[in-house]
Amino acid sequence: xxxxxxxxxxxxxxxxxxxxxxxxxxxxxxxxxxxxxxxxxxxxxxxxxxxxxxxxxxxxxxxxxxxxxxxxxxxxxxxxxxxxxxxxxxxxxxxxxxxxxxxxxxxxxxxxxxxxxxxxxxxxxxxxxxxxxxxxxxxxxxxxxxxxxxxxxxxxxxxxxxxxxxxxxxxxxxxxxxxxxxxxxxxxxxxxxxxxxxxxxxxxxxxxxxxxxxxxxxxxxxxxxxxxxxxxxxxxxxxxxxxxxxxxxxxxxxxxxxxxxxxxxxxxxxxxxxxxxxxxxxxxxxxxxxxxxxxxxxxxxxxxxxxxxxxxxxxxxxxxxxxxxxxxxxxxxxxxxxxxxxxxxxxxxxxxxxxxxxxxxxxxxxxxxxxxxxxxxxxxxxxxxxxxxxxxxxxxxxxxxxxxxxxxxxxxxxxxxxxxxxxxxxxxxxxxxxxxxxxxxxxxxxxxxxxxxxxxxxxxxxxxxxxxxxxxxxxxxxxxxxxxxxxxxxxxxxxxxx
Length: 498
Prior knowledge:
13% strand, 17 helices, 498 residues
Protein backbone atom coordinates (compact mmCIF):
# COMPACT_ATOMS: atom_id res chain seq x y z
CA UNK A 1 0.00 0.00 0.00
CA UNK A 2 1.62 3.22 -1.14
CA UNK A 3 0.59 6.78 -0.26
CA UNK A 4 1.40 8.98 -3.23
CA UNK A 5 -0.22 12.18 -1.91
CA UNK A 6 2.34 14.99 -1.59
CA UNK A 7 0.67 17.05 1.13
CA UNK A 8 2.59 17.25 4.39
CA UNK A 9 1.25 15.34 7.37
CA UNK A 10 -0.06 17.13 10.44
CA UNK A 11 0.95 14.09 12.51
CA UNK A 12 2.37 10.64 11.85
CA UNK A 13 -0.08 7.90 10.94
CA UNK A 14 0.67 6.14 14.25
CA UNK A 15 -0.23 9.36 16.08
CA UNK A 16 -3.33 9.73 13.92
CA UNK A 17 -4.57 6.26 14.77
CA UNK A 18 -3.74 6.69 18.46
CA UNK A 19 -6.46 9.36 18.76
CA UNK A 20 -10.16 8.66 18.60
CA UNK A 21 -12.66 11.30 17.53
CA UNK A 22 -12.87 13.05 20.89
CA UNK A 23 -9.09 12.84 21.14
CA UNK A 24 -8.60 14.64 17.82
CA UNK A 25 -11.26 17.15 18.85
CA UNK A 26 -9.27 17.87 22.02
CA UNK A 27 -6.17 18.56 19.92
CA UNK A 28 -8.20 20.98 17.78
CA UNK A 29 -9.60 22.81 20.82
CA UNK A 30 -6.12 23.04 22.34
CA UNK A 31 -4.82 24.69 19.18
CA UNK A 32 -2.32 21.91 18.48
CA UNK A 33 -3.90 21.37 15.07
CA UNK A 34 -6.67 23.04 13.08
CA UNK A 35 -9.86 21.34 11.95
CA UNK A 36 -8.74 21.96 8.37
CA UNK A 37 -5.41 20.22 8.98
CA UNK A 38 -7.21 17.22 10.44
CA UNK A 39 -9.63 17.16 7.49
CA UNK A 40 -6.73 17.35 5.04
CA UNK A 41 -5.04 14.38 6.70
CA UNK A 42 -8.31 12.41 6.61
CA UNK A 43 -8.72 13.23 2.91
CA UNK A 44 -5.16 12.13 2.28
CA UNK A 45 -5.87 8.82 4.04
CA UNK A 46 -9.03 8.31 1.99
CA UNK A 47 -7.20 8.85 -1.28
CA UNK A 48 -4.40 6.53 -0.20
CA UNK A 49 -6.50 3.51 0.78
CA UNK A 50 -9.66 3.97 -1.30
CA UNK A 51 -8.21 2.33 -4.44
CA UNK A 52 -7.82 -0.89 -2.44
CA UNK A 53 -11.05 -0.97 -0.43
CA UNK A 54 -13.40 1.49 -2.19
CA UNK A 55 -15.29 2.86 0.78
CA UNK A 56 -15.78 6.47 -0.31
CA UNK A 57 -17.82 7.63 -3.29
CA UNK A 58 -16.78 11.27 -3.13
CA UNK A 59 -14.66 13.65 -1.04
CA UNK A 60 -16.00 17.18 -0.65
CA UNK A 61 -12.86 19.24 -1.19
CA UNK A 62 -14.56 22.48 -0.17
CA UNK A 63 -15.51 20.98 3.21
CA UNK A 64 -11.95 19.76 3.68
CA UNK A 65 -10.65 23.28 3.04
CA UNK A 66 -13.19 25.02 5.30
CA UNK A 67 -14.51 23.03 8.25
CA UNK A 68 -17.17 25.61 9.15
CA UNK A 69 -18.20 26.53 5.63
CA UNK A 70 -21.33 24.36 5.47
CA UNK A 71 -22.81 24.97 8.88
CA UNK A 72 -20.53 22.83 11.04
CA UNK A 73 -20.42 24.09 14.62
CA UNK A 74 -16.71 23.93 15.33
CA UNK A 75 -17.46 24.70 18.99
CA UNK A 76 -19.44 21.45 19.28
CA UNK A 77 -18.17 18.34 21.08
CA UNK A 78 -16.32 17.10 17.99
CA UNK A 79 -14.81 20.54 17.19
CA UNK A 80 -14.91 20.22 13.38
CA UNK A 81 -13.79 16.57 13.19
CA UNK A 82 -14.01 15.17 9.61
CA UNK A 83 -16.90 12.75 9.14
CA UNK A 84 -18.29 10.59 6.36
CA UNK A 85 -22.01 10.39 5.66
CA UNK A 86 -23.35 7.13 4.30
CA UNK A 87 -24.82 7.74 0.84
CA UNK A 88 -28.26 6.81 2.15
CA UNK A 89 -30.65 8.21 4.73
CA UNK A 90 -30.14 11.80 5.94
CA UNK A 91 -29.66 14.25 3.09
CA UNK A 92 -26.95 16.90 2.93
CA UNK A 93 -27.94 20.14 1.20
CA UNK A 94 -26.39 20.50 -2.24
CA UNK A 95 -24.55 17.18 -2.09
CA UNK A 96 -25.21 14.17 -4.28
CA UNK A 97 -27.06 11.26 -2.68
CA UNK A 98 -27.16 8.37 -5.15
CA UNK A 99 -27.81 5.49 -2.73
CA UNK A 100 -25.54 3.04 -4.53
CA UNK A 101 -27.83 3.02 -7.53
CA UNK A 102 -27.58 3.76 -11.22
CA UNK A 103 -31.20 4.91 -11.02
CA UNK A 104 -30.32 7.83 -8.71
CA UNK A 105 -27.21 9.02 -10.52
CA UNK A 106 -27.09 12.80 -10.22
CA UNK A 107 -29.68 13.01 -7.41
CA UNK A 108 -28.84 16.16 -5.44
CA UNK A 109 -31.10 17.00 -2.47
CA UNK A 110 -31.60 20.68 -1.71
CA UNK A 111 -31.98 20.55 2.09
CA UNK A 112 -30.29 19.07 5.13
CA UNK A 113 -32.26 16.40 6.92
CA UNK A 114 -32.95 17.17 10.58
CA UNK A 115 -30.34 14.62 11.70
CA UNK A 116 -27.80 16.25 9.39
CA UNK A 117 -28.30 19.52 11.25
CA UNK A 118 -27.72 17.69 14.54
CA UNK A 119 -24.53 16.09 13.17
CA UNK A 120 -23.23 19.49 12.08
CA UNK A 121 -24.20 21.06 15.40
CA UNK A 122 -22.22 18.32 17.16
CA UNK A 123 -19.12 19.61 15.38
CA UNK A 124 -18.81 16.89 12.77
CA UNK A 125 -17.60 18.20 9.42
CA UNK A 126 -19.11 16.10 6.61
CA UNK A 127 -16.23 15.74 4.14
CA UNK A 128 -17.60 12.97 1.94
CA UNK A 129 -20.07 10.18 1.35
CA UNK A 130 -19.44 6.48 1.94
CA UNK A 131 -20.56 3.51 -0.12
CA UNK A 132 -23.74 1.52 0.30
CA UNK A 133 -25.49 -1.21 -1.67
CA UNK A 134 -28.40 -0.11 -3.83
CA UNK A 135 -30.95 1.59 -1.56
CA UNK A 136 -29.30 -0.17 1.40
CA UNK A 137 -31.11 -3.39 0.57
CA UNK A 138 -28.28 -5.88 0.45
CA UNK A 139 -25.59 -7.66 2.39
CA UNK A 140 -22.71 -5.67 0.88
CA UNK A 141 -21.84 -2.87 -1.53
CA UNK A 142 -20.82 -5.04 -4.41
CA UNK A 143 -22.07 -4.18 -7.88
CA UNK A 144 -19.19 -3.79 -10.37
CA UNK A 145 -21.35 -1.38 -12.40
CA UNK A 146 -21.29 1.00 -9.41
CA UNK A 147 -18.42 -0.03 -7.08
CA UNK A 148 -17.12 -2.97 -5.06
CA UNK A 149 -16.30 -2.26 -1.41
CA UNK A 150 -13.71 -4.62 0.07
CA UNK A 151 -12.79 -5.70 3.57
CA UNK A 152 -9.59 -4.01 4.82
CA UNK A 153 -8.58 -7.20 6.66
CA UNK A 154 -8.48 -9.14 3.37
CA UNK A 155 -9.59 -7.47 0.16
CA UNK A 156 -10.74 -10.79 -1.24
CA UNK A 157 -13.66 -10.63 1.19
CA UNK A 158 -16.71 -8.40 1.45
CA UNK A 159 -17.21 -5.76 4.12
CA UNK A 160 -20.86 -6.80 4.42
CA UNK A 161 -23.32 -3.95 4.68
CA UNK A 162 -25.23 -1.93 4.20
CA UNK A 163 -23.05 0.64 5.99
CA UNK A 164 -20.18 -0.75 3.98
CA UNK A 165 -18.00 2.25 3.20
CA UNK A 166 -18.19 3.73 6.67
CA UNK A 167 -17.18 0.40 8.20
CA UNK A 168 -14.15 -0.16 5.98
CA UNK A 169 -12.91 3.39 6.47
CA UNK A 170 -13.20 3.17 10.25
CA UNK A 171 -11.74 -0.34 10.15
CA UNK A 172 -8.76 0.92 8.13
CA UNK A 173 -8.11 3.74 10.60
CA UNK A 174 -8.94 6.46 8.07
CA UNK A 175 -11.49 8.13 10.36
CA UNK A 176 -12.36 7.45 13.99
CA UNK A 177 -16.10 7.37 13.33
CA UNK A 178 -18.55 7.60 10.43
CA UNK A 179 -22.30 7.59 9.81
CA UNK A 180 -24.34 4.43 9.40
CA UNK A 181 -27.96 3.33 9.11
CA UNK A 182 -29.47 0.12 10.48
CA UNK A 183 -32.70 -1.38 9.19
CA UNK A 184 -31.84 -5.00 9.99
CA UNK A 185 -28.24 -5.00 11.11
CA UNK A 186 -26.65 -2.59 8.65
CA UNK A 187 -24.52 -0.88 11.31
CA UNK A 188 -23.72 -3.94 13.43
CA UNK A 189 -23.00 -6.47 10.66
CA UNK A 190 -20.34 -4.52 8.69
CA UNK A 191 -18.85 -3.22 11.94
CA UNK A 192 -18.52 -6.82 13.08
CA UNK A 193 -16.97 -7.88 9.78
CA UNK A 194 -14.49 -4.99 9.71
CA UNK A 195 -13.37 -4.96 13.33
CA UNK A 196 -15.25 -1.85 14.46
CA UNK A 197 -17.89 -0.94 17.06
CA UNK A 198 -21.49 -0.63 15.91
CA UNK A 199 -24.50 0.41 18.01
CA UNK A 200 -28.07 0.10 16.82
CA UNK A 201 -29.92 2.41 19.20
CA UNK A 202 -33.36 1.95 20.70
CA UNK A 203 -36.37 3.10 18.74
CA UNK A 204 -37.02 6.77 19.39
CA UNK A 205 -33.37 7.88 19.43
CA UNK A 206 -32.59 9.47 16.04
CA UNK A 207 -34.74 11.58 13.75
CA UNK A 208 -35.76 10.54 10.24
CA UNK A 209 -37.32 13.92 9.36
CA UNK A 210 -38.32 15.34 7.04
CA UNK A 211 -38.24 13.06 3.99
CA UNK A 212 -37.97 9.51 5.29
CA UNK A 213 -41.14 7.59 6.00
CA UNK A 214 -42.63 7.06 9.44
CA UNK A 215 -43.91 3.83 7.90
CA UNK A 216 -40.42 2.33 7.83
CA UNK A 217 -38.87 4.17 10.78
CA UNK A 218 -40.42 1.65 13.13
CA UNK A 219 -37.63 -0.74 12.11
CA UNK A 220 -34.92 1.54 10.70
CA UNK A 221 -32.59 3.76 12.68
CA UNK A 222 -29.46 5.87 12.31
CA UNK A 223 -26.15 5.88 14.14
CA UNK A 224 -22.41 5.65 13.77
CA UNK A 225 -19.57 3.16 13.43
CA UNK A 226 -16.56 3.89 15.61
CA UNK A 227 -13.35 2.61 17.18
CA UNK A 228 -14.04 3.61 20.79
CA UNK A 229 -17.06 3.37 23.05
CA UNK A 230 -16.81 7.00 24.11
CA UNK A 231 -17.03 8.23 20.51
CA UNK A 232 -20.25 6.26 20.05
CA UNK A 233 -21.61 7.57 23.36
CA UNK A 234 -20.75 11.16 22.40
CA UNK A 235 -22.36 10.77 18.97
CA UNK A 236 -25.63 9.53 20.47
CA UNK A 237 -25.61 12.19 23.21
CA UNK A 238 -25.08 14.94 20.65
CA UNK A 239 -27.27 13.80 17.75
CA UNK A 240 -30.32 12.18 19.32
CA UNK A 241 -33.79 13.70 19.31
CA UNK A 242 -36.74 14.14 17.01
CA UNK A 243 -37.86 17.00 14.83
CA UNK A 244 -41.17 18.76 15.55
CA UNK A 245 -44.06 16.69 14.26
CA UNK A 246 -42.43 13.27 14.12
CA UNK A 247 -44.96 10.60 14.87
CA UNK A 248 -43.33 8.88 17.84
CA UNK A 249 -41.84 10.18 21.10
CA UNK A 250 -38.09 10.55 21.36
CA UNK A 251 -36.48 9.71 24.68
CA UNK A 252 -33.45 11.11 26.51
CA UNK A 253 -31.55 9.46 29.36
CA UNK A 254 -31.39 11.28 32.70
CA UNK A 255 -27.59 10.99 32.62
CA UNK A 256 -25.67 11.48 29.35
CA UNK A 257 -24.05 8.34 28.04
CA UNK A 258 -20.57 9.90 28.21
CA UNK A 259 -21.06 10.15 31.97
CA UNK A 260 -22.63 6.71 32.35
CA UNK A 261 -19.70 4.94 30.73
CA UNK A 262 -17.25 6.31 33.31
CA UNK A 263 -18.49 3.65 35.72
CA UNK A 264 -18.67 -0.12 35.38
CA UNK A 265 -22.16 -1.59 35.39
CA UNK A 266 -23.40 -3.54 38.38
CA UNK A 267 -23.05 -7.32 38.25
CA UNK A 268 -25.22 -8.32 35.29
CA UNK A 269 -27.16 -11.42 34.42
CA UNK A 270 -26.15 -12.35 30.87
CA UNK A 271 -28.03 -14.95 28.81
CA UNK A 272 -26.00 -16.47 25.98
CA UNK A 273 -27.46 -18.15 22.90
CA UNK A 274 -27.00 -18.72 19.20
CA UNK A 275 -29.61 -21.36 18.27
CA UNK A 276 -32.54 -19.21 17.25
CA UNK A 277 -35.30 -21.37 15.78
CA UNK A 278 -34.23 -22.54 12.32
CA UNK A 279 -30.88 -20.74 12.47
CA UNK A 280 -27.69 -21.41 14.39
CA UNK A 281 -24.06 -20.34 14.27
CA UNK A 282 -21.32 -22.44 12.71
CA UNK A 283 -19.30 -24.56 15.17
CA UNK A 284 -16.36 -22.15 15.10
CA UNK A 285 -18.56 -19.11 15.75
CA UNK A 286 -20.32 -21.00 18.56
CA UNK A 287 -16.92 -21.77 20.11
CA UNK A 288 -15.92 -18.11 19.90
CA UNK A 289 -19.23 -17.18 21.55
CA UNK A 290 -18.40 -19.53 24.43
CA UNK A 291 -14.96 -17.97 24.80
CA UNK A 292 -16.40 -14.45 24.90
CA UNK A 293 -19.07 -15.54 27.40
CA UNK A 294 -16.32 -16.83 29.68
CA UNK A 295 -14.58 -13.47 29.33
CA UNK A 296 -17.74 -11.66 30.48
CA UNK A 297 -17.91 -14.07 33.40
CA UNK A 298 -14.32 -13.17 34.30
CA UNK A 299 -15.46 -9.55 34.62
CA UNK A 300 -17.75 -10.63 37.45
CA UNK A 301 -21.03 -11.08 35.60
CA UNK A 302 -23.35 -14.07 35.90
CA UNK A 303 -23.41 -15.91 32.58
CA UNK A 304 -25.64 -18.79 31.46
CA UNK A 305 -26.56 -20.35 28.12
CA UNK A 306 -30.29 -19.66 27.81
CA UNK A 307 -32.35 -19.13 24.65
CA UNK A 308 -35.19 -16.59 24.91
CA UNK A 309 -38.64 -18.16 24.70
CA UNK A 310 -39.53 -16.65 21.35
CA UNK A 311 -41.41 -18.16 18.40
CA UNK A 312 -38.48 -17.48 16.09
CA UNK A 313 -40.05 -18.96 12.97
CA UNK A 314 -43.05 -16.65 13.32
CA UNK A 315 -40.74 -13.70 14.01
CA UNK A 316 -38.59 -14.31 10.94
CA UNK A 317 -41.67 -14.74 8.74
CA UNK A 318 -43.08 -11.44 10.03
CA UNK A 319 -39.84 -9.58 9.39
CA UNK A 320 -39.76 -10.95 5.83
CA UNK A 321 -43.23 -9.51 5.27
CA UNK A 322 -42.08 -6.24 6.81
CA UNK A 323 -38.98 -5.84 4.67
CA UNK A 324 -40.68 -6.82 1.44
CA UNK A 325 -43.67 -4.53 1.95
CA UNK A 326 -41.60 -1.61 3.32
CA UNK A 327 -39.06 -1.80 0.53
CA UNK A 328 -41.75 -2.02 -2.13
CA UNK A 329 -43.03 1.34 -0.93
CA UNK A 330 -39.51 2.76 -0.99
CA UNK A 331 -39.28 1.73 -4.64
CA UNK A 332 -42.71 3.20 -5.34
CA UNK A 333 -41.55 6.54 -3.96
CA UNK A 334 -38.41 6.38 -6.11
CA UNK A 335 -40.50 5.66 -9.19
CA UNK A 336 -42.78 8.64 -8.46
CA UNK A 337 -39.71 10.90 -8.46
CA UNK A 338 -39.37 10.26 -12.20
CA UNK A 339 -43.00 9.57 -13.11
CA UNK A 340 -42.45 5.84 -13.75
CA UNK A 341 -44.74 2.89 -13.11
CA UNK A 342 -42.17 0.11 -13.01
CA UNK A 343 -38.45 -0.10 -12.16
CA UNK A 344 -36.22 0.05 -15.29
CA UNK A 345 -34.33 -3.23 -15.50
CA UNK A 346 -31.16 -1.52 -16.67
CA UNK A 347 -31.13 0.84 -13.67
CA UNK A 348 -32.37 -1.37 -10.80
CA UNK A 349 -30.61 -4.45 -9.48
CA UNK A 350 -32.61 -7.65 -10.14
CA UNK A 351 -33.54 -8.63 -6.57
CA UNK A 352 -34.76 -5.13 -5.78
CA UNK A 353 -37.21 -5.49 -8.67
CA UNK A 354 -38.27 -8.92 -7.37
CA UNK A 355 -38.87 -7.49 -3.88
CA UNK A 356 -40.97 -4.68 -5.36
CA UNK A 357 -43.01 -7.17 -7.38
CA UNK A 358 -43.53 -9.35 -4.30
CA UNK A 359 -44.43 -6.52 -1.94
CA UNK A 360 -46.24 -3.80 -3.85
CA UNK A 361 -49.70 -5.37 -3.53
CA UNK A 362 -49.45 -6.74 0.02
CA UNK A 363 -52.77 -6.11 1.76
CA UNK A 364 -53.48 -4.16 4.88
CA UNK A 365 -54.69 -7.40 6.47
CA UNK A 366 -51.32 -9.01 5.83
CA UNK A 367 -49.58 -6.02 7.37
CA UNK A 368 -51.91 -6.11 10.38
CA UNK A 369 -51.19 -9.80 10.92
CA UNK A 370 -47.50 -9.03 10.64
CA UNK A 371 -47.86 -6.35 13.32
CA UNK A 372 -49.53 -8.84 15.68
CA UNK A 373 -46.54 -11.14 15.22
CA UNK A 374 -44.25 -8.17 15.86
CA UNK A 375 -46.10 -7.53 19.10
CA UNK A 376 -45.84 -11.15 20.20
CA UNK A 377 -42.11 -11.21 19.46
CA UNK A 378 -41.44 -7.92 21.23
CA UNK A 379 -43.41 -9.06 24.31
CA UNK A 380 -41.45 -12.33 24.37
CA UNK A 381 -38.09 -10.53 24.29
CA UNK A 382 -39.45 -8.06 26.83
CA UNK A 383 -40.24 -10.95 29.17
CA UNK A 384 -36.71 -12.31 28.71
CA UNK A 385 -35.25 -8.94 29.65
CA UNK A 386 -37.28 -8.97 32.85
CA UNK A 387 -35.10 -11.90 33.92
CA UNK A 388 -31.85 -11.12 32.10
CA UNK A 389 -30.03 -7.81 31.83
CA UNK A 390 -28.08 -8.65 28.68
CA UNK A 391 -28.40 -11.15 25.85
CA UNK A 392 -25.12 -12.18 24.21
CA UNK A 393 -25.06 -13.62 20.69
CA UNK A 394 -22.73 -13.55 17.72
CA UNK A 395 -23.36 -10.68 15.32
CA UNK A 396 -23.50 -13.09 12.36
CA UNK A 397 -24.07 -16.84 12.11
CA UNK A 398 -21.90 -17.61 9.09
CA UNK A 399 -18.47 -16.73 7.75
CA UNK A 400 -17.89 -13.42 5.97
CA UNK A 401 -18.40 -14.08 2.22
CA UNK A 402 -15.72 -13.68 -0.40
CA UNK A 403 -16.11 -11.02 -3.08
CA UNK A 404 -18.36 -12.38 -5.82
CA UNK A 405 -20.61 -14.47 -3.56
CA UNK A 406 -23.84 -13.44 -5.24
CA UNK A 407 -26.35 -15.39 -3.12
CA UNK A 408 -26.56 -12.51 -0.61
CA UNK A 409 -26.46 -9.71 -3.19
CA UNK A 410 -29.31 -7.91 -4.95
CA UNK A 411 -27.44 -8.61 -8.19
CA UNK A 412 -28.34 -12.29 -7.75
CA UNK A 413 -30.41 -14.12 -10.37
CA UNK A 414 -32.49 -15.82 -7.65
CA UNK A 415 -36.10 -15.47 -8.90
CA UNK A 416 -37.66 -15.54 -5.41
CA UNK A 417 -37.54 -12.65 -2.94
CA UNK A 418 -38.87 -14.97 -0.23
CA UNK A 419 -36.08 -17.48 -0.77
CA UNK A 420 -33.48 -14.70 -0.89
CA UNK A 421 -34.59 -13.25 2.45
CA UNK A 422 -34.72 -16.67 4.10
CA UNK A 423 -31.10 -17.18 3.07
CA UNK A 424 -30.18 -13.76 4.47
CA UNK A 425 -31.73 -14.59 7.84
CA UNK A 426 -29.54 -17.68 8.03
CA UNK A 427 -26.52 -15.37 7.81
CA UNK A 428 -27.80 -12.34 9.77
CA UNK A 429 -29.89 -14.29 12.24
CA UNK A 430 -29.29 -12.20 15.35
CA UNK A 431 -29.59 -8.58 14.20
CA UNK A 432 -32.99 -7.95 12.52
CA UNK A 433 -35.15 -8.83 15.52
CA UNK A 434 -33.75 -5.81 17.40
CA UNK A 435 -35.14 -3.67 14.60
CA UNK A 436 -38.45 -5.46 14.77
CA UNK A 437 -38.69 -5.00 18.57
CA UNK A 438 -37.10 -1.55 18.80
CA UNK A 439 -34.41 -2.81 21.19
CA UNK A 440 -30.73 -1.80 21.18
CA UNK A 441 -27.94 -4.07 19.98
CA UNK A 442 -24.20 -3.44 19.88
CA UNK A 443 -21.53 -5.33 17.95
CA UNK A 444 -18.12 -5.46 19.62
CA UNK A 445 -14.92 -6.67 17.85
CA UNK A 446 -14.14 -9.41 20.35
CA UNK A 447 -13.85 -12.55 18.24
CA UNK A 448 -12.13 -13.96 15.18
CA UNK A 449 -13.26 -16.15 12.31
CA UNK A 450 -11.26 -19.31 11.62
CA UNK A 451 -9.60 -17.50 8.69
CA UNK A 452 -8.50 -14.58 10.86
CA UNK A 453 -11.14 -12.05 9.80
CA UNK A 454 -12.91 -10.13 12.57
CA UNK A 455 -16.09 -11.58 14.06
CA UNK A 456 -18.38 -9.29 16.00
CA UNK A 457 -20.11 -10.35 19.19
CA UNK A 458 -23.43 -8.66 19.90
CA UNK A 459 -24.84 -7.55 23.22
CA UNK A 460 -28.59 -6.86 23.40
CA UNK A 461 -30.67 -5.11 26.07
CA UNK A 462 -34.25 -4.08 26.73
CA UNK A 463 -35.66 -1.07 24.91
CA UNK A 464 -34.20 2.11 26.35
CA UNK A 465 -31.27 0.35 28.01
CA UNK A 466 -28.70 1.65 25.52
CA UNK A 467 -26.75 3.16 28.39
CA UNK A 468 -26.32 -0.28 29.96
CA UNK A 469 -24.92 -1.63 26.68
CA UNK A 470 -22.48 1.27 26.49
CA UNK A 471 -21.49 0.81 30.13
CA UNK A 472 -20.75 -2.87 29.57
CA UNK A 473 -18.87 -2.13 26.36
CA UNK A 474 -16.78 0.50 28.17
CA UNK A 475 -16.01 -1.98 30.94
CA UNK A 476 -14.81 -4.45 28.30
CA UNK A 477 -12.76 -1.76 26.59
CA UNK A 478 -11.00 -0.92 29.85
CA UNK A 479 -10.40 -4.59 30.62
CA UNK A 480 -8.67 -5.17 27.27
CA UNK A 481 -6.84 -1.82 27.52
CA UNK A 482 -8.54 -0.58 24.37
CA UNK A 483 -7.08 -3.37 22.25
CA UNK A 484 -10.09 -4.43 20.22
CA UNK A 485 -9.42 -7.24 17.71
CA UNK A 486 -6.79 -8.56 20.15
CA UNK A 487 -4.66 -5.59 19.14
CA UNK A 488 -4.35 -6.79 15.54
CA UNK A 489 -4.56 -4.46 12.55
CA UNK A 490 -5.96 -5.16 9.07
CA UNK A 491 -3.89 -5.53 5.90
CA UNK A 492 -5.10 -2.15 4.64
CA UNK A 493 -4.51 0.41 7.39
CA UNK A 494 -3.27 3.96 7.68
CA UNK A 495 -0.41 2.96 9.97
CA UNK A 496 0.98 0.93 7.06
CA UNK A 497 1.12 3.86 4.66
CA UNK A 498 4.53 4.41 3.15
